[in-house]
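To close the section, here is one more complete example, presented without commentary so you can practise reading it yourself. The ligand is S-adenosylmethionine.
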Amino acid sequence: MLALTDKLERPVRDLRISVTDRCNFRCTYCMPKELFGKDHEFLPRDELLSFDEISHLVRVFTERGVEKVRITGGEPLLRKDVEKLVGMIRSVDGVEDLTLTTNASLLVRKARALAAAGLDRVTVSLDALDDPTFQRMNDVGFPVAAVLEGIEAAAESGLGPIKINAVVQRGVNDHAVIDMARHFRGTGHIVRFIEYMDVGTTNGWRLDDVVPAEEMVSSIHEVFPLEPVPPNYPGEVANRFRYLDGRGEVGVIASVTQPFCGSCTRARLSAEGTLYTCLFAGSGTNLRDAMRAGEDVGPIIDRVWSAREDRYSEVRSSQTVSIGSRVEMSYIGG
Ligand code: SAM
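Output:
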C-alpha cells in the first residue's frame, strides 16, 4: 500500500461516489425547482461512469488507503441496478465499510436487495417529522410516513444502525430538532443534526440561516439530558452525545461553526468521474476521460491528492457567495 498523504498530512481514507446527478426530490436548499426544473439538463447516460469504471476506481483508491466507501448522489437509488454496483464494490479488497446515503423514497423496494448485495448500512436524510414542513422542504409533496417505512425496511434488512441526517435551517425546520430527538430515542437509529452549509451557489445561503450545533445540543439537553461521548474513530465528523437515561444517542455535524478540515480524509467522485478533494471545491480532475483513454489513473490520483491543501470551512467568511464558484451538492453528493 502506498502511504498517500496531502500537503496537510491527511491520508485518503474515504471515497464518496455520486452515481447519478438526478433526484426525485427538489429540496429547496439543495436542488431548488427554479434551477432544477423541467428544462434542466442532467448528464446523459454515456457520460456517467459505468459500474466497471466505478469498481476500477474503488480498487485504485483502496490501494492508496481508502477503507470506507459511501454511495450517494443525486438520489443513488434512482441509478438502475445500483445493488449490482454494491456487490461489485463489496468484492474489492480493502473496502471495510460500504454505506449509502438516500432520501429513502425507494428503500421499501430496494432494502433487501442492497443488504443481500453486501451493503453494510444506510444513512437516511429526513429534515422534519411533520408533513407541512417536510413537504415544503422536499418540494415534491413526499410524505414523512413513506420515509419512516423506508427506514423500517432498511432496519429489518439488517442495514443498521441507521443514521438519520437532518439539515437544520433557522426558521424553516428548527422545531424538528426536538421532534426528531423524541421520535427516534430508544429506536436504535441515530439522528444527526447537520448545520446548513454553503455548498454550491444556488441555495442563497446566509450565516443567519445556520443553527449552531451547540444551540441544537443545548435545546435537546433541556428536554432530554445528554452527555458527550468520545468519537468512534479519529476524524469522525459528528460530535456524539448520549441520552443520560440510556435511550441511545444523537449527533451533530458542526461543519460551519466547528470546521473539521484538519481531519478530512474524504475524496469525492462525481457521477461523471471527476475527482474533487473538497465538498466546496470549484473544480476537479476528470478521471473518466483518462480511464477511457486507457491511461493509468493511479498516478493522477497520487498527484492530485499530494497537492491537496483544501480547508475551505476553516477559511469561509459569513458571506461566501463572493468566494467564487463551488460545485453543487446534488452533483458531487453529500
Ligand atoms: N439523495 C440522497 C439523500 O437525500 O440523502 C443523497 C444525496 S444528498 C445531496 C446528501 C445529503 O446532503 C442530504 O442529507 C442532504 O440533506 C444534504 N445536503 C444537501 N445540501 C446541503 C446543505 N446546503 N447543507 C447541509 N447538508 C446538505
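Once you have examined the C-alpha cells, check your reading against these statements. Residues 254 and 268 are 20 Å apart (CA to CA). The chain has a mean pLDDT of 94.
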